[in-house]
Design brief:
This protein is 59% helix and 10% strand. By secondary structure, it is α+β, with helices and mostly antiparallel strands. It folds into 2 domains: 19-168, no CATH class; 189-319, Reverse transcriptase/Diguanylate cyclase domain (Alpha-Beta Plaits).
Length: 320
């Protein structure tokens, strides 16, 4: 098993981990404001915000990985919609200060904390967003400058604290287990082994089926697999998995998949589906690749790593 190298997070990369928490938070806020302002126009705007957020949350619970990947973007779009809507109300007849702008000012420290966390590796973008946010609120609420100043100072403090905490609490990769492959984002082999041991102990106790699938991609020419190709293979695999399944990059050219409550026959059908999906990948070049797939079912009482060894032996035999 190849050892994974650890890379630090690059500057200029959006922090997308845990975005579902932010989505749930703004959904709760939107529901509270909708109930508080119903049946005014402000309440309807918050209702229009909460419905798509609820649908994304339901899609996440249904196992759609696309929902989790885009949760952070959905939160940002919801905030942008509220800002634009507040400007629209501001230009309405006899509207010196919109009620929507007032609610945005009230929740501004949380907005600042969200952007400080989401864009912690993109400081310039974070400060530009926060600056633009308060410029719009200042324009609408200049008559309430004391309240505006208090929320501005509090928001800046929250943003600075969140940035400091997120940077100082970065995990020490030299002292902890690497949980993710730095290239594909899949669980690391160490994490996969821990999950396999945990799941196999539960399924052995209840006499439930547990299977493994291995996929090996081997270049037939002298060229090496490109990082973009590996990422595309990894994405193809994860798009065909259930939320209970676990995939990892076992080594440079091999992916392993843990399938709880799955017989080897069912695993074979999944493996065939993955092979068919691989056949439709287009990398825009003529690099011949050989894809080898094998399956194995864990036997009750068997050492989980013995199942892995059986699977690797099947993989070698299938490649011959």
């Amino acid at each position: 098993m190849a050892e994974n190298t650890t890379h630090t997070t690059k500057a200029g990369t959006i922090n997308s981990a845990g975005s579902m928490g932010g989505l749930l938070g703004i959904f709760v806020i939107a529901c509270v404001e909708f109930q508080r302002h119903w049946p005014t126009g402000t309440g309807l705007i918050y209702l229009a915000i909460s419905v798509p957020l609820l649908l994304i949350w339901i899609a996440h619970l249904a196992g759609w990985k696309l929902a989790e990947r885009n949760a952070g973007l959905a939160v940002d779009i919801a905030i942008y919609v509220l800002i634009i809507a507040s400007l629209g109300i501001r230009f309405g007849p006899s509207q010196s200060t919109s009620e929507l702008a007032t609610t945005l000012l009230f929740w501004s420290p949380l907005v600042a904390g969200w952007w400080a966390w989401r864009y912690k590796n993109m400081a310039r973008q974070m400060w530009l967003l926060l600056g633009g946010f308060f410029v719009i609120l200042t324009w609408q609420m200049a008559s309430q400058h004391e309240r505006l100043d208090e929320h501005l100072i509090l928001s800046l403090l929250v943003a600075l604290v969140v940035r400091y905490v997120s940077q100082s609490s970065a995990p020490d990769h030299n002292a902890t287990m690497n949980l993710r492959d730095p290239l594909t984002g899949l669980p690391s082999p160490e994490c996969f082994e821990a999950e396999l041991a945990h799941v196999s102990s539960i399924f052995d106790r209840h006499q439930l089926p547990l299977s493994l699938v291995a996929c090996r991609i081997t270049p037939l020419a002298t060229t090496q697999l490109q990082d973009a190709q590996l990422c595309q293979y990894a994405e193809t695999i994860t798009n065909r998995l259930r939320t209970s399944d676990t995939a990892c990059q076992w080594d440079r050219t091999t992916f392993m998949i843990l399938l709880p409550n799955t017989t080897e026959a069912m695993a074979g059908k999944l493996a065939q589906g993955i092979r068919n999906a691989f056949d439709h990948l287009d990398f825009g070049q003529k690099t011949p690749l050989a894809v080898t797939i094998a399956t194995a079912q864990h036997q009750p009482g068997e050492d989980p790593m013995s199942t892995v060894s059986t699977l690797e032996n099947k993989l070698v035999a299938a490649a011959e």
